[in-house]
Amino acid sequence: MMDASERLRRPAYLRIWGALLVPLFLAAAYLGLVWSPQDVNQGNLIRIMYAHVSVAWIGFVAVGFTALFGALFLWRGKRRDDVLAAASGEMALLYSSLTIIGGMTYSRPTLNTFWTWDAKLTLTALMVALLVGYFIVRALVDDPVRRGRVSAVVAIVVAASLPFNYLAAEWFRTLHPSRSIALDGSGVTMAPEMLFTLLFTTVVAGLIYAWFMVDRARLGHIEAQLEAERAKRELGAAPSAGGVVRV
Amino acid sequence: MNDLLAVLWIARKDLLHETRSKATTVATLFFSAVTLVVLAFAIGQDEQLLRGAATGALWVAIAFAGVISAAQSYQADLEDGAFDHLLTTPVPRAAVYLGKLLANWLFMLVLSLLMLPVTFVLYGAGFPGAWPWLLATVALGTLGFALIAVFYAGLTANLRARESLLPVLMFPIVVPILLASVRASGALVGVGDLELAQGWLRLLVAFDLVYAVLCTAIYHFVVEE
Question: What is the tens place of the pLDDT at every residue in A62-76?
Fold first, then answer.
């Protein structure tokens, strides 16, 4: 058995990956704040968009991965998948909260209001509520296997609800400027420098998400081992403590 | 074939239990009526405003009643461990879900049909000419609510703080149902815009279909021991 400090040590690949994230983040900040040209209509405000949109996209990806790992746990029953699902869920909650803050920062100067009932902003607010629900459920179930299954079910239902929430909010009322990038790559109306900056910040946001998720899952795995050892110890101690009232 | 029978028997059991005890009926009926009255007070005496808010108030009342009825349908089963007995019977868990769904849907349907005239009287809205479409909206909307409510009520039935947890979990999911139902019935009652209502009804149908399949498929993970 490894001793405690060795077990807690961050593996080498994570340390290198983490160290690389710092210059990458600075490069993304330089591209967005200095290198990218001003927008014709929005001027310097377009620079908020690089941080806001990249974080929003990765937030949705994170919810998708939470549901995916949850589904894997239901299928294979490996504890590792549940730990990854929870780690990804935490990052999804962080990124969608940041998306709301970014969206409000962006819409105050451009649309002259902090909150609009715009489809994407409404969708993100609902996503935060859904993710909080996911973690409330996780906190309320003690048995790890049952916790994994129940929270996986919640994650799948949450992921399935996103397209409906989006459609409903979109039809309800939309104030958002129309998308400049179509999914098939056609109809790009951005300057190439802007597009490059946006894609670069998105990749960096994705790498940061992945790093925190992997590192959180590593800690989650240690937590799970600790939980299992404690349960085993309590089980082993119970018969010898016969007659003694446990406090 | 036998599974279909099981669905019907479970629905019959729940409905029979309800017609004999009437506990949920009385609670939800008065609760939704009180909700309608309270909302009318909150909106004030402006007739125009009241008429515009009619369908919104109706669906809020239905949504709250749906939470109560779904939670109660498990509560009755959990007493004396009857639910465990139900799970040990040789029927698929999906049949348990569909049976409870059927019972809850019928219950909510009847409740909504009773609340419709109350809303029209209290809020002074005119009964729409296209009433079959309004009935379709009520049927599809209550089905969507029941799908999620029965599913999540099964998940929370064994948890602490289930009374507050169920609405917290289910309301963000049913937002599209609420929006689509309110908009569709609003379009029918207000200006009589059938085309607009049908657009929202399509969203309701899609939601109901997707969640009927999804919830039935993964329900057995929810209720296992």
Answer: 999 999 999 999 898
Q: Is the dihedral of CA A23, A29, A31, A34 positive or negative?
A: negative
Q: Is A167 on the interface with B (CB under 8 A)?
A: yes
Cα of B26 to nearest chain A Cα, Å:
30
Alpha helices in A9-45 (DSSP H): 12-30
A133, A167, A172 ranked by CB distance to B172: nearest: A133
Alpha helix segments (H runs only) across chain A: 4-8, 12-30, 46-76, 79-111, 119-140, 144-172, 192-240
Determine whether the interchain pair B176/A165 forms a contact, defined as Cβ–Cβ distance below 8 Å: yes
Q: Is A9 helix (H, G, I), strand (E, B) or coil?
A: coil
Question: With the CA atoms of B44, B46, B49 and B53 taken in that order, what torsion angle do they form, in degrees rounded to the nearest 10?
Answer: 40
- pLDDT, tens digit, for every residue of B71-119? 888 887 887 778 888 888 888 888 889 999 999 999 999 999 998 888 8
Nearby residues of B5 by Cβ (< 8 Å), 6 or more positions away = none
Distance CA B63, CA B176 (A): 12
SS3 A170: helix
ipTM over 0.90: no
Chain A, window 198-237: residues with a beta carbon less than 8 angstroms from a chain B beta carbon: none
Please name the residues in contact with A229: beta carbons below 8 A apart, sequence gap of 6 or more: none
| pLDDT higher than threshold 90 for residue A109 | no
Structural domain boundaries enclosing B44: 2-223
CA distances for B72 relative to B67, B164, B166, angstroms = 9, 14, 12
Average of pLDDT values for A102-106?
84
| Residues of chain A numbered 88-127 and touching chain B (CB < 8 Å) | 126
DSSP B92: -
Name residue A43's beta-bridge partners. Answer: A39
Domain tally, chain B: 1
